[in-house]
Write a sequence for this structure.
């Protein structure tokens, strides 16, 4: 696992032609793409993903800005951190921001201070602008001396809970810490797109590794297992042995019916 922590900022300018996009460099890999069908990145979401190579990425979206666009709509920020496992204290602070409206707002204020409207306008006109050092500096200062410690033990397998449930949030912090340290591959994310354990179960089956999901639109209490064991591969849609057996049986029945029809024609 070689590399260094990389940071990217997506936002927009005030004018209509200054829509959402990354300032400066674009992340070389859209590692959050597999989870995209299960989240609404225009809203307040958080995604932590550890790959099979041990590299962990983090995305926090819906960070509020005090700036508005030309029609008065509140602008939002999205921050992507690649190689987040190299700075677990910073990464866990961003996880906390993703779970707390207060801390998310504080993150937005820090970003607004470093990237005011005039600077954003200038950076959007210069796709080669190097903003990474400025962004990482802002994030590191905002994180301050926050400890990387997250209480509680990580739970086995895949599970779901509600964003506002204390037990589920504690378990989620432990899972995030595990993904950032030495855990196996998997995802931990919040979602506005899923409202039930059944929806979370479908997402877990579609994703590689284990999955921890916090639902915004749910009031379930505690943590509900999703039935996916560690190391289980994504669900395959290829024909199974049972399906093939049913097909073979159907062909036998068809052959018998054709034989009967032929005998009746001979009588």
């Amino acid at each position: 696992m070689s590399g260094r922590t990389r940071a990217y900022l997506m936002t927009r300018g005030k004018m209509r032609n200054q829509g959402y996009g990354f300032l400066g460099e674009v992340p070389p890999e859209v590692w959050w793409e597999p989870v995209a069908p299960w989240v609404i990145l225009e809203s307040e979401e958080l995604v932590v993903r550890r790959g099979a190579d041990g590299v962990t990425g983090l995305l926090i979206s819906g960070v509020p800005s005090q700036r508005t666009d030309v029609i008065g709509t509140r602008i939002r920020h999205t921050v992507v951190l690649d190689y987040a496992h190299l700075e677990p204290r910073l990464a866990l602070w961003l996880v906390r921001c993703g779970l707390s409206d207060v801390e998310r707002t504080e993150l937005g204020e820090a970003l607004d201070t470093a990237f005011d409207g005039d600077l954003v306008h200038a950076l959007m006109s210069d796709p080669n602008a190097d903003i990474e050092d400025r962004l990482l500096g802002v994030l590191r200062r905002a994180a301050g001396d926050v400890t990387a410690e997250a209480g509680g033990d990580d739970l086995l397998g895949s599970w779901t809970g509600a964003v506002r449930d204390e037990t589920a949030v504690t378990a989620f912090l432990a899972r995030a810490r595990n993904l950032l340290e030495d855990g196996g591959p998997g995802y931990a994310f919040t979602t506005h797109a899923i409202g039930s354990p059944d929806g979370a179960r479908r997402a877990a089956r579609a994703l590689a590794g284990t999955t921890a999901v916090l639902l915004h639109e749910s009031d379930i209490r505690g943590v509900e297992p999703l039935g996916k064991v560690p190391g289980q591969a994504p669900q395959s849609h290829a024909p199974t042995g049972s399906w093939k057996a049913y097909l073979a049986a159907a062909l036998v029945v068809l052959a018998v019916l054709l034989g009967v029809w032929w005998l009746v024609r001979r009588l």
